[in-house]
Design goal:
single chain; alpha+beta; eight-stranded antiparallel beta sheet; 3 helices; 8 strands
Length: 185
Protein backbone atom coordinates (compact mmCIF):
# COMPACT_ATOMS: atom_id res chain seq x y z
CA UNK A 1 0.00 0.00 0.00
CA UNK A 2 1.26 3.54 0.60
CA UNK A 3 4.56 4.23 2.18
CA UNK A 4 3.28 7.84 2.41
CA UNK A 5 1.90 10.63 0.17
CA UNK A 6 2.04 14.50 -0.70
CA UNK A 7 0.10 16.12 -3.59
CA UNK A 8 -3.31 17.58 -4.29
CA UNK A 9 -5.57 17.79 -7.26
CA UNK A 10 -8.95 19.38 -7.82
CA UNK A 11 -11.72 19.22 -10.32
CA UNK A 12 -15.36 19.69 -11.13
CA UNK A 13 -18.04 17.15 -12.30
CA UNK A 14 -21.42 17.10 -14.15
CA UNK A 15 -24.69 15.23 -13.43
CA UNK A 16 -25.81 12.03 -15.09
CA UNK A 17 -29.46 11.67 -16.05
CA UNK A 18 -31.52 8.64 -15.19
CA UNK A 19 -32.55 8.13 -18.83
CA UNK A 20 -29.06 7.78 -20.29
CA UNK A 21 -25.57 8.46 -18.99
CA UNK A 22 -24.21 11.81 -20.17
CA UNK A 23 -21.45 11.96 -22.72
CA UNK A 24 -18.34 14.07 -22.11
CA UNK A 25 -17.02 16.61 -24.60
CA UNK A 26 -14.64 13.92 -25.88
CA UNK A 27 -17.44 11.40 -26.39
CA UNK A 28 -16.81 9.23 -23.31
CA UNK A 29 -19.89 8.06 -21.47
CA UNK A 30 -19.97 8.99 -17.81
CA UNK A 31 -20.61 5.81 -15.80
CA UNK A 32 -24.03 5.54 -14.17
CA UNK A 33 -24.21 5.28 -10.39
CA UNK A 34 -26.47 2.28 -9.75
CA UNK A 35 -26.49 2.46 -5.92
CA UNK A 36 -26.00 6.15 -5.11
CA UNK A 37 -25.07 7.37 -1.67
CA UNK A 38 -26.80 10.50 -0.33
CA UNK A 39 -25.32 13.59 -1.99
CA UNK A 40 -25.50 15.28 1.42
CA UNK A 41 -22.42 13.25 2.47
CA UNK A 42 -20.33 15.73 0.45
CA UNK A 43 -21.33 18.43 2.95
CA UNK A 44 -19.75 16.46 5.83
CA UNK A 45 -16.42 16.67 7.63
CA UNK A 46 -13.60 15.72 5.26
CA UNK A 47 -11.41 14.76 8.24
CA UNK A 48 -13.99 12.16 9.31
CA UNK A 49 -14.01 10.36 5.95
CA UNK A 50 -10.98 8.28 6.93
CA UNK A 51 -10.90 6.73 10.39
CA UNK A 52 -7.73 6.73 12.49
CA UNK A 53 -7.44 2.97 11.92
CA UNK A 54 -7.74 3.43 8.13
CA UNK A 55 -5.12 6.19 8.11
CA UNK A 56 -2.87 3.94 10.16
CA UNK A 57 -2.85 1.40 7.31
CA UNK A 58 -1.68 4.07 4.85
CA UNK A 59 1.44 5.31 6.61
CA UNK A 60 4.44 3.50 8.04
CA UNK A 61 4.35 5.82 11.07
CA UNK A 62 1.80 8.16 12.62
CA UNK A 63 1.10 11.11 10.29
CA UNK A 64 0.14 14.67 11.20
CA UNK A 65 -3.46 15.54 10.35
CA UNK A 66 -4.85 18.97 9.58
CA UNK A 67 -6.41 20.41 12.73
CA UNK A 68 -9.70 20.97 10.88
CA UNK A 69 -11.02 20.61 7.36
CA UNK A 70 -10.10 23.41 5.00
CA UNK A 71 -12.78 24.98 2.82
CA UNK A 72 -11.13 25.75 -0.51
CA UNK A 73 -14.17 27.43 -2.03
CA UNK A 74 -14.99 24.29 -4.05
CA UNK A 75 -14.39 21.52 -1.51
CA UNK A 76 -13.94 20.65 2.13
CA UNK A 77 -10.47 19.14 2.32
CA UNK A 78 -8.43 17.29 4.92
CA UNK A 79 -4.84 16.08 4.68
CA UNK A 80 -2.61 13.70 6.61
CA UNK A 81 1.15 14.27 6.19
CA UNK A 82 4.46 12.71 6.98
CA UNK A 83 6.59 15.74 6.18
CA UNK A 84 9.88 14.01 6.90
CA UNK A 85 9.14 11.25 4.37
CA UNK A 86 7.42 13.61 1.89
CA UNK A 87 4.12 11.78 1.90
CA UNK A 88 0.48 12.90 2.00
CA UNK A 89 -3.04 11.52 1.83
CA UNK A 90 -5.94 13.88 1.23
CA UNK A 91 -9.71 13.77 0.96
CA UNK A 92 -11.70 16.49 -0.75
CA UNK A 93 -15.50 16.53 -0.50
CA UNK A 94 -16.13 18.55 -3.65
CA UNK A 95 -19.42 20.38 -3.19
CA UNK A 96 -18.82 22.43 -6.37
CA UNK A 97 -19.26 19.29 -8.51
CA UNK A 98 -23.04 19.68 -8.77
CA UNK A 99 -23.07 17.16 -11.61
CA UNK A 100 -20.95 14.58 -9.85
CA UNK A 101 -18.29 12.75 -11.85
CA UNK A 102 -19.59 14.23 -15.10
CA UNK A 103 -17.73 17.45 -14.23
CA UNK A 104 -14.43 15.56 -14.29
CA UNK A 105 -15.37 13.80 -17.54
CA UNK A 106 -16.10 17.23 -19.07
CA UNK A 107 -12.43 18.12 -18.52
CA UNK A 108 -11.19 15.01 -20.32
CA UNK A 109 -8.56 15.99 -22.89
CA UNK A 110 -7.43 19.01 -20.82
CA UNK A 111 -4.69 17.20 -18.91
CA UNK A 112 -4.28 13.80 -17.31
CA UNK A 113 -7.34 11.50 -17.40
CA UNK A 114 -7.39 7.75 -16.78
CA UNK A 115 -10.40 5.58 -15.94
CA UNK A 116 -9.58 3.17 -13.11
CA UNK A 117 -11.42 0.13 -11.78
CA UNK A 118 -14.45 1.07 -9.67
CA UNK A 119 -14.36 0.91 -5.88
CA UNK A 120 -17.30 -0.93 -4.34
CA UNK A 121 -19.29 -0.28 -7.53
CA UNK A 122 -18.53 3.47 -7.68
CA UNK A 123 -16.68 4.79 -10.76
CA UNK A 124 -13.16 6.17 -10.33
CA UNK A 125 -11.10 8.45 -12.58
CA UNK A 126 -7.50 9.55 -12.06
CA UNK A 127 -7.16 13.08 -13.36
CA UNK A 128 -5.41 16.41 -13.03
CA UNK A 129 -3.88 19.25 -14.98
CA UNK A 130 -0.81 17.03 -15.50
CA UNK A 131 0.27 13.44 -14.98
CA UNK A 132 2.22 13.53 -11.70
CA UNK A 133 2.69 9.76 -11.33
CA UNK A 134 6.42 9.92 -12.14
CA UNK A 135 6.77 12.32 -9.17
CA UNK A 136 4.69 10.05 -6.90
CA UNK A 137 1.42 12.00 -6.96
CA UNK A 138 -2.10 11.28 -8.11
CA UNK A 139 -5.65 12.44 -7.44
CA UNK A 140 -8.72 10.34 -8.17
CA UNK A 141 -12.35 11.41 -8.40
CA UNK A 142 -15.06 9.01 -7.24
CA UNK A 143 -18.71 9.37 -8.20
CA UNK A 144 -21.03 8.44 -5.32
CA UNK A 145 -24.23 9.84 -6.88
CA UNK A 146 -25.12 11.52 -10.15
CA UNK A 147 -24.79 14.85 -8.34
CA UNK A 148 -21.95 14.07 -5.89
CA UNK A 149 -18.30 13.05 -6.03
CA UNK A 150 -15.20 13.28 -3.88
CA UNK A 151 -11.49 13.23 -4.48
CA UNK A 152 -8.71 11.19 -2.87
CA UNK A 153 -5.17 12.52 -3.26
CA UNK A 154 -1.86 10.78 -2.68
CA UNK A 155 1.78 11.73 -2.70
CA UNK A 156 3.92 8.70 -1.94
CA UNK A 157 7.01 8.92 0.27
CA UNK A 158 10.11 10.22 -1.47
CA UNK A 159 11.71 6.79 -1.14
CA UNK A 160 8.72 5.14 -2.87
CA UNK A 161 8.54 7.38 -5.95
CA UNK A 162 8.82 5.22 -9.04
CA UNK A 163 8.14 1.93 -7.25
CA UNK A 164 4.42 1.68 -8.02
CA UNK A 165 1.42 3.52 -9.41
CA UNK A 166 0.33 6.31 -7.06
CA UNK A 167 -3.07 6.34 -8.79
CA UNK A 168 -3.67 2.81 -7.53
CA UNK A 169 -2.66 4.02 -4.07
CA UNK A 170 -5.16 6.89 -4.38
CA UNK A 171 -7.79 4.37 -5.52
CA UNK A 172 -7.12 2.34 -2.35
CA UNK A 173 -7.60 5.50 -0.25
CA UNK A 174 -10.86 6.13 -2.12
CA UNK A 175 -12.00 2.59 -1.32
CA UNK A 176 -11.42 3.20 2.40
CA UNK A 177 -13.33 6.51 2.12
CA UNK A 178 -16.29 4.82 0.43
CA UNK A 179 -16.40 2.28 3.26
CA UNK A 180 -16.64 5.12 5.79
CA UNK A 181 -19.17 7.09 3.72
CA UNK A 182 -21.37 4.01 3.35
CA UNK A 183 -21.33 3.59 7.11
CA UNK A 184 -22.55 7.17 7.52
CA UNK A 185 -25.27 7.06 4.87
Amino acid sequence: MLAACSGTTGGTATTASSAAPPVSSTGSTVPAISNPLPASLIQGDACAVLTAAQVGTLFSRTPTRDAAPTDTGVAKACYWHDVERGSLVGIQLVYAWKNGLATVYAKQGQGFFKVLAPVQGYPVVAYGPSDDRSRGGCGVAVGIADNAAFEADVQVANSAVGTGDPCEDARKVADLAVTTLKGGS
